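Lab channel / #folding
Pinned by the channel admin:
"Please post every new chain as: sequence first, then the structure tokens as a reply. Keep commentary short and put observations after the output so the thread stays searchable."

First post following the new format, from NK:
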Amino acid sequence: MGESQPVPRIRRRNKQPQMRLLEFYVISAQELRRVRKDMNCFVVAYVSADKKVKTEIDFEGITEPTWQEKLSLEVEEAAFKEDSNSQLTFDIFCPGFLRDKLVGTVRISLVDAVKPSNQPYPISSYLVFTPDGDSQGMLNVCVAPGGVFPKRLDFLSFKRVKSIHGTQLEAVPSFKKFEAEETEEESGERVSFPGGIVANLPGGTLG
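Reply from TO:
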């Protein structure tokens, strides 16, 4: 009998998880615990601890910092499922010489954060919890419903307006300028009108 041939090993590739984009604005905070004379706060945001993003430093607000900064994360698709317990975490820090000082943390359910809303740019305020477990201060954020803002949106700015309930934050959207596609029908003429709208008119005439 002949010698048996060795069975070749099949190398299985690790299947990469599907990723999904998560977009949000870190707007501002108020009444934070003052842990240093010069607070100079910034925010670190993450769903998974190995992928973090952060804002710029606010040098002026002290315990009332303002960032109004858009951030985005790539998050595993599974984290958005209804039975997921994934959280979107915001850590507020003061920069330090040896290490940064944690001011407080906000944790919100990712599933709840991206739920559809009757507001296109919903603003939510969350209690900030200090490292010793006390609640002091609020963090204001705007998470895109569904996880992603409309493509035509250029950026959001935020202002305080008076209402019957006092003052509240309001989102002010700025949209991208209309960009016409460089396509023309055969024998047509490309005509520009005020406002940047472009039309193809048959026969090359205005009628």
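NK: The chain has a mean pLDDT of 85.
TO: also worth noting, The CA atoms of residues 126 and 139 lie 5 Å apart.
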